[in-house]
Design goal:
The protein is mainly beta. 13% of the residues lie in helices and 45% in strands.
Protein backbone atom coordinates (compact mmCIF):
# COMPACT_ATOMS: atom_id res chain seq x y z
CA UNK A 1 0.00 0.00 0.00
CA UNK A 2 1.47 3.31 -1.08
CA UNK A 3 -0.05 6.69 -0.24
CA UNK A 4 0.44 9.90 -2.12
CA UNK A 5 1.04 8.19 -5.45
CA UNK A 6 -0.50 10.06 -8.36
CA UNK A 7 -2.52 8.15 -10.97
CA UNK A 8 -0.31 7.96 -14.05
CA UNK A 9 2.57 5.90 -15.42
CA UNK A 10 5.22 4.91 -12.88
CA UNK A 11 8.38 2.81 -13.02
CA UNK A 12 8.68 -0.20 -10.72
CA UNK A 13 12.17 -1.63 -10.17
CA UNK A 14 13.69 -4.51 -8.24
CA UNK A 15 16.34 -3.64 -5.72
CA UNK A 16 19.29 -5.53 -7.26
CA UNK A 17 21.29 -5.35 -4.06
CA UNK A 18 18.79 -7.70 -2.42
CA UNK A 19 19.03 -10.38 -5.13
CA UNK A 20 21.44 -13.24 -4.31
CA UNK A 21 24.46 -13.35 -6.60
CA UNK A 22 23.45 -16.68 -8.08
CA UNK A 23 20.28 -15.20 -9.65
CA UNK A 24 19.71 -12.77 -12.49
CA UNK A 25 16.61 -10.97 -13.73
CA UNK A 26 15.27 -11.96 -17.16
CA UNK A 27 12.42 -10.28 -19.08
CA UNK A 28 8.92 -11.71 -19.30
CA UNK A 29 6.66 -11.86 -22.35
CA UNK A 30 5.13 -8.39 -22.00
CA UNK A 31 5.78 -4.89 -23.35
CA UNK A 32 5.96 -3.06 -20.07
CA UNK A 33 9.71 -3.46 -19.50
CA UNK A 34 11.78 -0.32 -19.77
CA UNK A 35 14.51 -2.12 -21.67
CA UNK A 36 15.91 -3.65 -18.52
CA UNK A 37 14.70 -6.90 -16.98
CA UNK A 38 14.54 -5.42 -13.48
CA UNK A 39 12.47 -2.35 -14.43
CA UNK A 40 8.84 -2.09 -15.71
CA UNK A 41 6.21 0.57 -16.40
CA UNK A 42 3.05 0.43 -14.31
CA UNK A 43 -0.19 2.39 -15.00
CA UNK A 44 -1.47 3.39 -11.56
CA UNK A 45 -5.11 4.46 -11.06
CA UNK A 46 -7.01 5.09 -7.88
CA UNK A 47 -9.18 2.40 -6.39
CA UNK A 48 -7.40 -0.41 -8.18
CA UNK A 49 -4.84 -3.13 -7.41
CA UNK A 50 -1.91 -3.57 -9.76
CA UNK A 51 0.71 -6.31 -9.70
CA UNK A 52 4.10 -6.21 -11.41
CA UNK A 53 5.82 -9.53 -12.11
CA UNK A 54 9.55 -10.10 -12.46
CA UNK A 55 11.41 -13.29 -13.23
CA UNK A 56 14.65 -14.55 -11.68
CA UNK A 57 16.72 -17.41 -13.08
CA UNK A 58 19.64 -19.18 -11.50
CA UNK A 59 22.92 -18.19 -13.20
CA UNK A 60 25.59 -20.66 -14.16
CA UNK A 61 28.55 -20.29 -11.80
CA UNK A 62 31.72 -18.62 -13.12
CA UNK A 63 33.94 -20.95 -15.15
CA UNK A 64 37.33 -20.94 -16.83
CA UNK A 65 38.79 -23.10 -19.61
CA UNK A 66 41.55 -25.61 -18.86
CA UNK A 67 43.50 -27.00 -21.81
CA UNK A 68 46.45 -29.23 -22.62
CA UNK A 69 48.38 -29.41 -25.86
CA UNK A 70 50.89 -32.04 -26.94
CA UNK A 71 53.54 -31.63 -29.63
CA UNK A 72 56.11 -34.15 -30.89
CA UNK A 73 59.41 -33.36 -32.55
CA UNK A 74 62.55 -35.21 -33.63
CA UNK A 75 65.74 -33.76 -32.22
CA UNK A 76 69.18 -35.33 -32.00
CA UNK A 77 67.92 -38.79 -32.92
CA UNK A 78 65.28 -38.73 -30.18
CA UNK A 79 61.57 -38.01 -30.12
CA UNK A 80 60.75 -35.12 -27.77
CA UNK A 81 57.35 -34.36 -26.27
CA UNK A 82 56.18 -30.93 -25.13
CA UNK A 83 53.03 -30.61 -23.01
CA UNK A 84 51.53 -27.17 -22.40
CA UNK A 85 48.87 -26.87 -19.69
CA UNK A 86 46.93 -23.60 -19.40
CA UNK A 87 43.85 -22.25 -17.60
CA UNK A 88 41.98 -18.95 -17.82
CA UNK A 89 42.48 -17.91 -14.22
CA UNK A 90 38.87 -16.77 -13.70
CA UNK A 91 38.29 -19.58 -11.20
CA UNK A 92 40.67 -20.57 -8.43
CA UNK A 93 41.94 -24.12 -8.99
CA UNK A 94 42.62 -26.28 -5.96
CA UNK A 95 44.91 -28.69 -7.84
CA UNK A 96 46.34 -29.22 -11.32
CA UNK A 97 48.10 -32.23 -12.80
CA UNK A 98 49.35 -33.32 -16.23
CA UNK A 99 49.03 -37.02 -17.11
CA UNK A 100 50.89 -38.78 -19.93
CA UNK A 101 50.62 -42.27 -21.41
CA UNK A 102 53.58 -43.19 -23.63
CA UNK A 103 53.10 -45.03 -26.94
CA UNK A 104 53.08 -48.81 -26.64
CA UNK A 105 56.63 -50.12 -26.30
CA UNK A 106 58.05 -46.64 -25.63
CA UNK A 107 59.18 -45.13 -22.36
CA UNK A 108 59.82 -41.66 -21.01
CA UNK A 109 63.46 -40.85 -20.25
CA UNK A 110 62.66 -39.44 -16.84
CA UNK A 111 66.04 -37.78 -16.36
CA UNK A 112 65.26 -35.49 -19.31
CA UNK A 113 61.92 -34.28 -17.90
CA UNK A 114 61.55 -30.59 -17.03
CA UNK A 115 58.64 -28.43 -15.88
CA UNK A 116 58.94 -24.76 -16.82
CA UNK A 117 62.61 -25.32 -17.55
CA UNK A 118 63.43 -26.94 -14.21
CA UNK A 119 64.16 -30.69 -13.78
CA UNK A 120 61.16 -32.56 -12.37
CA UNK A 121 60.71 -36.31 -12.68
CA UNK A 122 57.16 -37.60 -13.06
CA UNK A 123 55.28 -39.78 -10.62
CA UNK A 124 54.20 -43.21 -11.82
CA UNK A 125 50.65 -44.49 -11.39
CA UNK A 126 48.07 -46.86 -12.84
CA UNK A 127 46.95 -44.32 -15.43
CA UNK A 128 50.45 -43.33 -16.54
CA UNK A 129 53.05 -40.75 -15.59
CA UNK A 130 51.99 -37.48 -13.99
CA UNK A 131 53.39 -34.13 -12.91
CA UNK A 132 51.86 -32.08 -10.07
CA UNK A 133 51.62 -28.44 -11.16
CA UNK A 134 51.09 -25.14 -9.33
CA UNK A 135 47.35 -24.39 -9.82
CA UNK A 136 47.90 -20.65 -9.29
CA UNK A 137 50.17 -20.43 -12.33
CA UNK A 138 48.19 -20.03 -15.55
CA UNK A 139 50.62 -21.85 -17.87
CA UNK A 140 53.07 -24.72 -17.47
CA UNK A 141 55.37 -26.28 -20.07
CA UNK A 142 56.54 -29.89 -19.59
CA UNK A 143 59.22 -31.34 -21.83
CA UNK A 144 60.84 -34.79 -22.01
CA UNK A 145 62.44 -37.28 -24.40
CA UNK A 146 61.09 -40.68 -25.40
CA UNK A 147 62.94 -43.93 -26.08
CA UNK A 148 61.42 -46.20 -28.70
CA UNK A 149 60.90 -49.93 -28.64
CA UNK A 150 58.34 -52.66 -29.00
CA UNK A 151 56.79 -54.00 -32.17
CA UNK A 152 55.99 -52.45 -35.52
CA UNK A 153 52.72 -50.58 -35.90
CA UNK A 154 50.82 -47.34 -35.34
CA UNK A 155 50.91 -46.12 -31.74
CA UNK A 156 49.32 -43.33 -29.73
CA UNK A 157 50.80 -40.85 -27.27
CA UNK A 158 48.06 -39.63 -24.90
CA UNK A 159 48.08 -36.56 -22.66
CA UNK A 160 45.38 -34.96 -20.52
CA UNK A 161 45.10 -32.70 -17.50
CA UNK A 162 43.30 -33.33 -14.22
CA UNK A 163 42.16 -30.48 -12.01
CA UNK A 164 39.92 -29.59 -9.09
CA UNK A 165 37.95 -26.40 -8.47
CA UNK A 166 35.14 -25.51 -6.03
CA UNK A 167 32.48 -26.53 -8.56
CA UNK A 168 34.45 -29.24 -10.38
CA UNK A 169 36.11 -31.45 -7.76
CA UNK A 170 37.14 -34.15 -10.27
CA UNK A 171 37.75 -32.21 -13.46
CA UNK A 172 39.55 -33.54 -16.52
CA UNK A 173 40.27 -32.26 -19.98
CA UNK A 174 39.76 -34.33 -23.07
CA UNK A 175 42.66 -36.36 -24.44
CA UNK A 176 45.30 -34.77 -26.64
CA UNK A 177 46.41 -37.68 -28.84
CA UNK A 178 49.35 -37.79 -31.22
CA UNK A 179 50.30 -40.74 -33.43
CA UNK A 180 53.59 -42.48 -34.20
CA UNK A 181 54.37 -45.22 -36.66
CA UNK A 182 57.14 -47.70 -35.85
CA UNK A 183 58.78 -50.05 -38.32
CA UNK A 184 61.12 -52.55 -36.65
CA UNK A 185 63.55 -54.57 -38.76
CA UNK A 186 65.84 -57.31 -37.49
CA UNK A 187 69.26 -58.20 -38.85
CA UNK A 188 70.96 -61.45 -37.90
CA UNK A 189 74.73 -61.41 -37.74
CA UNK A 190 76.42 -64.83 -37.60
CA UNK A 191 78.89 -65.35 -34.74
CA UNK A 192 81.35 -68.23 -34.32
CA UNK A 193 83.34 -68.55 -31.11
CA UNK A 194 86.19 -70.99 -30.41
CA UNK A 195 87.81 -71.74 -27.05
CA UNK A 196 90.20 -74.31 -25.60
CA UNK A 197 89.97 -75.37 -21.95
CA UNK A 198 92.76 -77.39 -20.38
CA UNK A 199 92.58 -80.14 -17.74
CA UNK A 200 94.86 -81.78 -15.22
CA UNK A 201 96.24 -85.27 -15.88
CA UNK A 202 93.53 -87.98 -15.81
CA UNK A 203 90.95 -85.36 -14.69
CA UNK A 204 87.68 -84.18 -16.23
CA UNK A 205 86.85 -81.61 -13.54
CA UNK A 206 86.76 -77.96 -14.58
CA UNK A 207 89.65 -75.96 -13.16
CA UNK A 208 88.89 -72.62 -11.42
CA UNK A 209 90.48 -70.65 -14.25
CA UNK A 210 88.36 -72.60 -16.76
CA UNK A 211 85.18 -71.78 -14.82
CA UNK A 212 86.12 -68.09 -14.81
CA UNK A 213 86.60 -68.14 -18.58
CA UNK A 214 83.30 -69.95 -19.08
CA UNK A 215 81.45 -67.43 -16.90
CA UNK A 216 82.75 -64.57 -19.02
CA UNK A 217 81.69 -66.47 -22.11
CA UNK A 218 78.21 -67.06 -20.69
CA UNK A 219 77.66 -63.31 -20.22
CA UNK A 220 78.59 -62.74 -23.85
CA UNK A 221 76.42 -65.60 -25.09
CA UNK A 222 73.37 -64.25 -23.24
CA UNK A 223 73.32 -61.43 -25.79
CA UNK A 224 73.14 -63.89 -28.70
CA UNK A 225 70.71 -66.39 -30.12
CA UNK A 226 72.48 -69.74 -29.85
CA UNK A 227 71.96 -72.31 -32.57
CA UNK A 228 74.22 -74.99 -31.14
CA UNK A 229 77.35 -75.57 -29.07
CA UNK A 230 79.83 -78.33 -29.82
CA UNK A 231 82.30 -79.67 -27.24
CA UNK A 232 85.16 -81.91 -28.35
CA UNK A 233 87.23 -83.55 -25.62
CA UNK A 234 90.90 -84.58 -26.06
CA UNK A 235 93.69 -86.25 -24.05
CA UNK A 236 97.44 -86.57 -24.35
CA UNK A 237 98.92 -89.80 -25.68
CA UNK A 238 99.80 -91.38 -22.36
CA UNK A 239 97.71 -94.42 -21.59
CA UNK A 240 95.90 -94.70 -18.31
CA UNK A 241 97.70 -97.20 -16.08
CA UNK A 242 95.69 -100.15 -14.75
CA UNK A 243 95.87 -98.83 -11.18
CA UNK A 244 94.27 -95.52 -12.35
CA UNK A 245 91.43 -97.03 -14.38
CA UNK A 246 88.88 -96.97 -11.58
CA UNK A 247 87.37 -93.67 -12.85
CA UNK A 248 88.22 -93.83 -16.57
CA UNK A 249 89.24 -97.04 -18.32
CA UNK A 250 90.93 -95.33 -21.26
CA UNK A 251 91.63 -92.00 -22.92
CA UNK A 252 88.45 -92.19 -24.99
CA UNK A 253 86.27 -92.25 -21.87
CA UNK A 254 88.36 -89.47 -20.34
CA UNK A 255 87.98 -87.26 -23.43
CA UNK A 256 84.22 -87.82 -23.47
CA UNK A 257 83.99 -86.91 -19.78
CA UNK A 258 85.94 -83.71 -20.37
CA UNK A 259 83.57 -82.66 -23.16
CA UNK A 260 80.55 -83.52 -21.04
CA UNK A 261 81.73 -81.51 -18.03
CA UNK A 262 81.88 -78.35 -20.16
CA UNK A 263 78.58 -79.19 -21.89
CA UNK A 264 76.75 -79.67 -18.59
CA UNK A 265 78.08 -76.39 -17.22
CA UNK A 266 77.04 -74.32 -20.24
CA UNK A 267 73.68 -76.04 -20.61
CA UNK A 268 72.79 -75.19 -17.02
CA UNK A 269 74.06 -71.61 -17.17
CA UNK A 270 72.37 -70.80 -20.49
CA UNK A 271 69.25 -72.91 -20.02
CA UNK A 272 69.82 -74.67 -23.33
CA UNK A 273 67.80 -77.54 -24.71
CA UNK A 274 69.62 -80.91 -24.94
CA UNK A 275 69.57 -80.81 -28.73
CA UNK A 276 71.47 -77.51 -28.69
CA UNK A 277 74.52 -79.06 -27.04
CA UNK A 278 76.67 -81.80 -28.53
CA UNK A 279 79.60 -83.38 -26.64
CA UNK A 280 82.02 -85.91 -28.16
CA UNK A 281 85.41 -87.33 -27.22
CA UNK A 282 88.32 -87.89 -29.58
CA UNK A 283 90.77 -89.52 -27.15
CA UNK A 284 94.40 -88.84 -28.10
CA UNK A 285 93.78 -88.88 -31.86
CA UNK A 286 94.01 -85.11 -32.51
CA UNK A 287 96.98 -83.59 -30.70
CA UNK A 288 97.82 -79.93 -31.23
CA UNK A 289 101.30 -80.19 -29.69
CA UNK A 290 104.03 -82.76 -29.22
CA UNK A 291 103.30 -85.40 -26.60
CA UNK A 292 107.04 -85.79 -25.96
CA UNK A 293 107.16 -82.74 -23.69
CA UNK A 294 105.30 -81.90 -20.52
CA UNK A 295 104.13 -78.57 -21.95
CA UNK A 296 102.92 -80.25 -25.13
CA UNK A 297 100.96 -82.89 -23.24
CA UNK A 298 99.32 -80.12 -21.13
CA UNK A 299 98.10 -78.42 -24.31
CA UNK A 300 96.68 -81.68 -25.62
CA UNK A 301 94.62 -82.27 -22.46
CA UNK A 302 91.83 -79.99 -23.58
CA UNK A 303 88.21 -79.51 -24.62
CA UNK A 304 87.49 -77.51 -27.73
CA UNK A 305 84.41 -75.31 -27.56
CA UNK A 306 82.64 -74.19 -30.72
CA UNK A 307 79.64 -71.86 -30.53
CA UNK A 308 77.35 -71.22 -33.48
CA UNK A 309 75.13 -68.24 -32.77
CA UNK A 310 73.72 -65.06 -34.23
CA UNK A 311 73.25 -61.59 -32.91
CA UNK A 312 69.92 -59.95 -33.61
CA UNK A 313 70.12 -56.23 -34.24
CA UNK A 314 66.85 -54.32 -34.10
CA UNK A 315 66.55 -51.30 -36.35
CA UNK A 316 63.73 -48.95 -35.37
CA UNK A 317 62.40 -46.42 -37.85
CA UNK A 318 59.87 -44.01 -36.40
CA UNK A 319 57.73 -41.51 -38.25
CA UNK A 320 55.52 -38.91 -36.56
CA UNK A 321 52.06 -39.13 -38.12
CA UNK A 322 50.47 -36.32 -36.11
CA UNK A 323 52.72 -33.85 -34.32
CA UNK A 324 50.24 -31.60 -32.49
CA UNK A 325 47.04 -32.14 -30.54
CA UNK A 326 44.99 -30.12 -28.07
CA UNK A 327 42.17 -30.93 -25.65
CA UNK A 328 40.01 -28.75 -23.40
CA UNK A 329 38.05 -28.91 -20.19
CA UNK A 330 36.15 -26.47 -17.97
CA UNK A 331 36.66 -25.64 -14.31
CA UNK A 332 33.63 -24.17 -12.55
CA UNK A 333 33.21 -22.16 -9.40
CA UNK A 334 30.23 -22.64 -7.10
CA UNK A 335 27.64 -20.32 -5.61
CA UNK A 336 27.56 -22.48 -2.50
CA UNK A 337 30.58 -21.00 -0.84
CA UNK A 338 31.56 -22.61 2.44
CA UNK A 339 30.34 -20.55 5.32
CA UNK A 340 32.94 -18.95 7.47
CA UNK A 341 32.86 -20.29 10.99
CA UNK A 342 31.07 -18.00 13.37
CA UNK A 343 33.32 -16.12 15.71
CA UNK A 344 32.56 -17.19 19.25
CA UNK A 345 31.89 -14.28 21.59
CA UNK A 346 34.69 -13.52 23.94
CA UNK A 347 33.70 -14.55 27.44
CA UNK A 348 33.79 -11.77 29.98
CA UNK A 349 36.78 -12.02 32.25
CA UNK A 350 36.46 -11.07 35.90
CA UNK A 351 38.36 -7.96 36.78
CA UNK A 352 41.47 -8.36 38.91
CA UNK A 353 41.00 -7.86 42.62
CA UNK A 354 42.90 -4.58 42.66
CA UNK A 355 40.69 -3.24 39.86
CA UNK A 356 37.41 -4.23 41.48
CA UNK A 357 38.10 -1.80 44.20
CA UNK A 358 37.79 1.07 41.75
CA UNK A 359 34.54 -0.18 40.14
Amino acid sequence: HFEGVSAHTHVVQMDLTTIPQRYEAVPLANTRFTGRAFSQFAEIQGGGLWRTNFRLLRKAPPSTPVSISQTLSSEGGKVWTTLTVTHGGRVDLDSLKAVYVAPQGWKVLEDTATVDGKPQKPSSGITGLSWDLDPKQREHVIRFALEGGGKSGDKQAIAYARFASPGTPNGRTGMAINALSDVVKEERLARHLDMHLNFDTRKADLKPEAIARLDRLVEELKQLEISRIELIGHTDSRRIRPDHRKEFRNNQELSEARAKSVADYLQAKLNLAPEQVKAVGMGASQPIASNRTKAGRAKNRRTELKVYASKVRRILNTSIKSAAAKAKGKAEDTWDKPKKPAVAPIAAQPAPADVKAWL
